[in-house]
Amino acid sequence: MAKVPVQFTLNGAEKAEFIDSGTTLLNALRDKIGDTSPKGGCHQGTCGACSVIIDGELRLSCLTLAETCNGAAITTTSGLSEGGVLHPLQRAFLDAFATQCGFCTPGMIMAAKVLLDHTPSPSREDVVEALSGNICRCTGYEPIIQAVLTAARSNSQHAA
Amino acid sequence: MELRKSYFADQRKDDLHEIGQPRPRSDSPSHVTGKTAYFADRNFPGMLHLKMVRSPHHHARIRSIDTSEAEKHPGVVKVLTAKDVPHNVYTILILIQIGPEDETVLADSKVRWKGEAVVAMLAETERAAQEAAAKVKVDYEVLPAVFDMEEALKPGAPLVNEYHGQNHYLYDSGECRKVRFGDVDAGFAGADHILEQTYQSSPIEHAPTETTGCIVAPEGNDRFTCYTNTQAMFFTLDNASIILQMPGSKLHFVGGTVGGGFGGKVDVIVEPIAILGAKLTGRPVSFIYSREEEMQISSPRAAEKVVIKDGVMKDGRIVARKVTGYTDAGAYSRHSPYGAQKGAGHYPGPYTIPNVWIDTYCVYTNRTPSSAMRGFGVTIGDFALEVQMDKLARLIGMDPLEFRFINAYRDGDMKAHRQPTEGAALIECMQEASRAANWPVAEKYLSMSSYAKGA
Ligand code: FES
Ligand code: FES
User: Fold this and answer.
1) Is the interface score ipTM higher than 0.85?
2) Does Cytoplasm appear among the keywords (chain B) (predicted)?
């Protein structure tokens, strides 16, 4: 099978790979580039565990072909903390007991980040809506919702 | 949060300084940074992908299997059938002497449930394995199937599993696990009211976010490292050793964080065949359930049917209880004989009843084999029992909480399965629940204690 080149930035770093045409971004990130923070829970667009941010928008990497990402800026949860300091969302998930098995966590944090980037002071309903594409089988969601609301509050304090 | 220290004050030191204090989870920092390593977060050069050819029928004899077209498919490296598996018929609990071995790793002469593994396809890519799997031709003679437990127990029902010889597990106590305590007939004869009800549940899938799977890497020294999300590491290692007829010293199992289990990852399903694939090809093998397989193939919680007959007095005492429980194992035992047995011990609930008669059956049907899930064997039983308790309270016009105080077990009470009650705290929990839920009960119940019969 002919390989196709792809080039994009991942968490600010330039990446270039030759991939099989038809490879999903999820598989390219995990198997080729070695960023395993996006998880594959269904490979069919139903669980949200593979969520990443492409050019500021939330995307399911299992339904995105890697070759469509040429020139894109991609963000994953592994790239959120800076210099060992946790992002406010990561801090809030940790403090609010919003992780159990942790498998949904990277996808949840991506969905929450896109929400807060667009809506810095979300209502509870906004949070529920933003996370509605992400399945968690462990926590019962409430601690996750609280974590996102807490992160939003701490962001606005930083901004003030 | 309020910590009430008055209960059992004489039994403990007052140094419960952890309770009510938040403590960070030790695994959270790596979860929130995406650094936690799950079994699938590994990639080995030359890794093969395993896909199963599965039975489209609930019950069928296998006349022949033709893998010739599949073998020619580009990318296919190895095709495995029953004859490649050194010890193909196994059962998980054989490790604790619960036999007989009744399940095939790959089906040989028969399939007993829709989705049963028949042929394992190993290929360079997932896609090639999938496409080749579709080219395997299996000639089936479809057999009558049975899906209902009571139908399965009737004479003349299709025999699901020949290794058992009948459609139920044979306990040392006979066709069911039995508990006999007191004289249940005399209890019913003296009761003011009798209530018999039937409770049923459907299978329940755990649906973990991470699907079941493993990755096996052959080491240079003839050993195999198996990265797995099993919840039962040593059960899996020992069963793999039996199935592969390989000493345990050749098998190196590496577990780690499981992406949700809930009991659904205690069966030994993916590891032995993946190790065999790695052994026969000399290459790393990845066998990971698709979401569809996780939902359709992995064991659910068993369907159950519970028939409860209680004799109760107007003053609130339950004087007799007769329970017949049915656990739907599906086509194979896995953990179900144990689950059904747990139910037998559990059906009196946390109540002291002088006359008890319990039969629990582990039944084989042509449904997906069931297995462990959070409190299996007792969870559905508790649902049935507590609904029954509410119905009994209504029947005699009593408050449901006060009704439970009257029947609550206390230290020293003999349970129906001949285990004296120790460390009971039901009364104290209900007293606290009564306050917390603002569900008042008569003062005499608030002065009761688990220590002794009084009040
Ligand atoms: S893996 Fe992409 S949505 Fe589930
Ligand atoms: S923490 Fe396990 S799925 Fe969300």
Assistant:
1) yes
2) no
